[in-house]
Amino acid sequence: MSDRLETLHKELAAGVAALVTSDDWLAWLKVAAKFRRYSFNNQMLILLQCPEATHVAGFRAWQEMGRQVRKGEKSLGIFAPSTRKVRDETTGEESRRVVGYRVVSVFDVSQTDGDPLPEPVRPVLLDGEAPAGLWDALAALVTGDGYALERGDCGQANGWTKADPPTVRVRDDVSDAQAAKTLAHELAHVRLHMAPDYNYGQHRGLAEVEAESVAYLVAAAHGLPTGGYSLPYVAGWGEDAAVVTATASRVIATARAILAVTDAEAVTVAA
Questions:
Q1: What is the tens place of the pLDDT at every residue in 48-78?
Q2: Is the link from the previous residue into 120 a cis peptide, with omega within 30 of 0?
Q3: Which of 2, 6, 21, 114 could form a disulfide with 67 if both were Cys (CB 3.0 to 4.6 A apart)?
Q4: In this structure, are residues 261 and 217 in contact, taking their beta carbons and an 8 Å threshold?
Q5: Which helix (H) or strand (E) holds 80?
Q6: pLDDT of 185-198, one tens digit each?
Q7: How far is CA 167 from the centre of its chain?
Q8: For residue 24, what are the contacts with CB-CB under 8 A and spacing of at least 6?
Q9: Could you give the C-alpha distances from 222 to 209, 225, 262, 263, in angstroms and in order?
Q10: The pTM is what?
Q11: What is the CA radius of gyration of the chain?
Q12: Burial tier of 252 (Cβ tally within 10 Å: 0-12, 13-18, 19+)
């Protein structure tokens, strides 16, 4: 098992280093959209071992869902935390803490046979429509962060954000779906790039990739089409895997925080 752990770590390092291209970053985003509750490392491992994966689970978990892993299928290795009880020297209380990671074997649904999985219920959207409640939920997050929200002319852009005075503007001549995507993009700027010590001019390429990546994950989670997304090459990335990992982690955390609200809003509206 230790050999497999070492092998997966090496594959992960090589895969992360390859994410400096727009195509490879977009490939990771597609996996991240399907496995948004997984860590960046596990998303990458799934991408490297089974790029077309849509739903993974362990051998017994598939059996509990009425499906059986086909004989001869090769498992996918992902990381799972190893925990143990640790006693606090001050209070004497025991708690479980992560002390390391181990490899666990999972399989994609395409490697199994059996009962069909239930499909998530999503609203049927006409061209140009946005999911009910999505714009309002995003708008509430923007204003809750202290930014005025406007609709109007944005020049050549679909939207913009500025810190002084704190304002987000989305153009008013686009479809509801595009307006919601743009608002998610601008909200990402608010959350990631509006701090006084952040130099947007110096990090513009990276900032736009982060904002567009967050918007991609929010759009995908709400059933909006994502086929038209394009991401600029980040010239300053180089081959620094640590920067890539940090960027991906920021994108995941920001998208999760937004979706924790917009998903709940969508359920409330649907009910």
A1: 999 999 999 999 999 999 999 999 999 999 9
A2: no
A3: 114
A4: no
A5: strand 76-87
A6: 999 999 999 999 99
A7: 25
A8: 18
A9: 20, 9, 9, 8
A10: 0.87
A11: 21
A12: buried
